[in-house]
Structure formats: structure tokens, C-alpha cells
């Protein structure tokens, strides 16, 4: 099937807009565009329409294929789709390709200041040993990167057209009727352009990204956990999040989550460990081996003749957590002692203990004093469970009073 060549049209307009001759070289086109674009840039109070025309003219004449079509058939041929389509180039994108942004400082007059992409946050579980010794973990992540084939334009020609569905705003407004004379106005991203405000000709779509402007990339990041880092501390990889056109790439942030340790507890730079002694160990002496977080064996022992009281603490200096970025400085290791008392003693043991232990206050009573006393019986009790049971019983009694007809009557003092 043969396609009829278009009629010849005006093929001098773009050269006149740039102020160059038809045989101008690429360098001449660049110099002419840069000079005129700076003069007519909206940030300098220039004419926005003239600025747009300059970008359109340069976008065509700087492309050898499009320039040849334009020289032969004029602007109409490009609009009919020859040379990959004649979509309007974004004038600010072309300008930024020369200067990397506005050379006048600040954002553009039409609010084209680049927005910042969202950070990607991941939880990274670590053990207390990891935080004590330091470690590194290699993690494989997928992220979006700008398509290298079309430089994030989405099209082979770099051209795009304003979305007809949202008029280039990227947003649509819908009206929802809630009732008589009641309406709700809702704004949502345009489904035709996915909120980008622009569309790409199907024939001009980039074959690599299919017009999406980004492709997926797998990347391996090495996360270094330094000695002494804390639970909840963040490790940031700047500019490693998803890339998007006209967007400053966000960061990938790893938040440390310390797993619970079966033996040690951490508070800041200090470590705490629980240890239970028998009554004999608490009264006489004890020694035991504690395996530290780095695998070292610590010998823990009491001083001769020392008595360890229940619920007491003892400290070992410089055996706690290393301090962050000061790993040779450490906190303390605290040992919390509990004493395991025997459930009962036989009479012989009681006699031996009385002979060894210091005598307490005299508890011998005369027969007369005993006759005046009432004998009682002690029983074991879980005090927390006991108080909870009593509180529940009081609440039930209160609820019953509330349910009685007329409620409880108040007692008033008689009037004098």
C-alpha cells in the first residue's frame, strides 16, 4: 500500500522564528535558540508563546529526519505523522537540556520546580549481637529508573502531546450527587494519562519502556550496621528510591528493628541480665560463667563472706554496649539477682541454721501471753490475682445497685 506524499507547505517559518538561514548548521541553530530562549524565557518576563514557538522550531530543526521532512513538505507533514509525529515539545524540557534548569535561579514562572519523590522505607531486623559487634547485610531491591533508550521521555522522538482528557493538568474532577441539592466534588488523577498530563502517540512509543518512561532495575545495596547503633535508628541511601521524570529522586531508608534477646536487655549503652541464686549461694558464695554477646566467657563470682540480698544489682564496668561511633567506649553490664528460697526445712535443718545464723529479736512468749492470743492460720496467696478478684466483685455489686428500680436512696439529715 502506497502513501500519497503531502502537498508542499510553508517551510521557512521555523527558520524565521530562530532568525537563521535555511542552510544554518547545527551549531548555528543551538546558538540562535539559546540566545532567543533566554531573552523570551517567562522567568525573565518574556513572551510565553514566543518561548513555546522557539522550542517547537528548534525541536524540529535539530532533528535531521524531521528537518528534511520540514524542508520538503512544511509543518503540515509533521502534523500528519511523518517523521515520528509532530507532537509539541515541552519548551521547559528543551531549555533545561541546555542549562540544567533555569539559569536565573529559583523555580519557573509556571511552577515547574522539581518535586521530590517519596522515600522508600524498609524495616531491617537485627539481633542484639549485630548491634554489639557491627555487621553488614546485602539486600536485593527492585526500583524504577528512567528509561535509558528514551531518556525518560517515553517516546522515540522525545515528543509528547497534552492529554485531551484532563487538558494537561493530570487531574480530573467528578461530581457525585448525594441527595436533593447536595453534590460532592472530587478530584482524582486522570485515568487516560495516569496523572502525567500528557499522552504519547502509539507509533512513537519507546520500544523499551512502552511509553512508561521508566523501567525496573534490580540493585544490591550493602547496609552497614555500625557497632552501638540503636533500635529505630535509620540508615539512609540518598537518591536510591524510584526515579521519575522531572522529579528529584527520594531516598531508600532502612529502619533498624532489634529482635528480642533471650538473655540480655539493653537500655541505651547499658546491658542487663537476670540471674537466680540458691539460698546457699546467696548466703555463702557463688560463681558462674556468663557467655557475652561476642562469645567471650565471663567468670562472675562473689567476694568471700559476701551475702547477696534478693532483688539486688551488681555492675561490671565497660562490659555493656559499645557507644555509637565511639566503639572503644562501652556502657556497664548490670546483673539483677533473685534468690530461690527453699519451700520448707526439716527440724534438723532449722536447728542447724539457728545455731549458725545471727539471732533475731526474741520471740519467746510466756504461757499467760499465749493464753491471751488467738491462734491464726497462714495460707499462700497470689496478691495480684486476689486484688483483681476483689475489684471485679465490687464492680458487680455496684452494677446490681444500679439495676435496682429507683436506685439507691440517699440518706438526708433531718431539718432542725
UniProtKB/TrEMBL annotation:
Keywords: Chaperone, Lipoprotein, Metal-binding, Methylation, Prenylation, Repeat, Zinc, Zinc-finger. It comes from Acacia crassicarpa. This is Uncharacterized protein. PANTHER family: DNAJ-LIKE-2, ISOFORM A-RELATED. It holds the Pfam family DnaJ_C. Residues 384-416 are annotated as: Disordered. The keyword Nucleotide-binding does not apply. Plays a continuous role in plant development probably in the structural organization of compartments.
Amino acid at each position: 500500500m502506497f502513501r500519497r506524499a503531502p502537498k508542499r507547505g510553508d517551510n521557512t517559518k521555523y527558520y524565521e522564528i530562530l532568525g537563521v538561514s535555511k542552510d544554518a548548521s547545527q551549531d548555528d541553530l543551538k546558538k540562535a535558540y539559546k540566545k532567543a530562549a533566554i531573552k523570551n524565557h517567562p522567568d525573565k518576563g518574556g513572551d510565553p508563546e514566543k518561548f513555546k514557538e522557539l522550542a517547537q522550531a528548534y525541536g524540529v530543526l535539530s532533528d535531521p529526519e524531521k528537518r528534511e521532512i520540514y524542508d520538503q513538505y512544511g509543518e503540515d507533514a509533521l502534523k500528519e505523522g511523518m517523521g515520528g509525529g509532530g507532537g509539541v515539545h515541552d519548551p521547559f524540557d528543551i531549555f533545561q537540556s541546555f542549562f540544567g534548569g533555569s539559569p536565573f535561579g529559583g523555580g519557573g514562572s509556571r511552577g515547574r520546580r522539581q518535586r521530590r519523590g517519596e522515600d522508600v522505607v524498609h524495616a531491617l531486623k537485627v539481633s542484639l549481637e549485630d548491634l554489639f559487634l557491627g555487621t553488614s547485610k546485602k539486600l536485593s531491591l527492585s526500583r524504577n529508573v528512567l528509561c535509558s533508550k528514551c531518556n525518560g521521555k517515553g517516546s522515540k522522538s522525545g515528543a509528547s502531546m497534552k492529554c485531551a482528557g484532563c487538558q494537561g493538568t493530570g487531574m480530573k474532577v467528578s461530581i457525585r450527587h448525594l441527595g436533593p441539592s447536595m453534590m460532592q466534588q472530587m478530584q482524582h488523577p486522570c485515568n487516560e494519562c495516569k496523572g502525567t498530563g500528557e499522552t504519547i502517540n502509539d507509533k512513537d512509543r519507546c520500544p523499551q519502556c512502552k511509553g512508561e518512561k521508566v523501567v525496573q532495575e534490580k540493585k544490591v545495596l550493602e547496609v552497614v550496621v555500625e557497632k552501638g547503633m540503636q533500635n529505630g535508628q535509620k540508615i539512609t541511601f540518598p537518591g536510591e528510591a524510584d526515579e521519575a521524570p522531572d522529579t528529584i529522586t527520594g531516598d531508600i531508608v532502612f529502619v533498624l528493628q532489634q529482635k528480642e534477646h533471650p538473655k540480655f536487655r539493653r537500655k541505651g549503652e547499658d546491658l542487663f541480665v537476670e540471674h537466680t541464686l540458691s539460698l546457699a549461694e546467696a548466703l555463702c558464695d557463688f560463681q558462674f560463667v556468663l557467655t557475652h554477646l561476642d562469645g567471650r566467657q565471663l567468670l562472675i563470682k562473689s567476694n568471700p563472706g559476701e551475702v547477696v540480698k534478693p532483688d539486688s544489682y551488681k555492675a561490671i564496668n565497660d562490659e555493656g554496649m559499645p557507644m555509637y561511633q565511639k566503639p572503644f567506649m562501652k556502657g556497664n553490664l548490670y546483673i539483677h539477682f533473685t534468690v530461690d528460697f527453699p519451700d520448707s526445712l526439716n527440724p534438723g535443718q532449722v536447728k542447724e541454721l539457728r545455731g549458725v545464723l545471727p539471732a533475731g529479736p526474741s520471740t519467746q512468749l510466756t504461757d499467760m501471753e499465749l493464753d491471751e492470743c488467738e491462734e491464726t492460720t497462714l495460707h499462700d496467696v497470689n496478691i495480684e490475682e486476689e486484688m483483681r478478684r476483689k475489684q471485679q466483685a465490687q464492680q458487680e455489686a455496684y452494677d446490681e445497685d444500679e439495676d435496682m428500680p429507683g436506685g439507691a436512696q440517699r440518706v438526708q439529715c433531718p431539718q432542725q
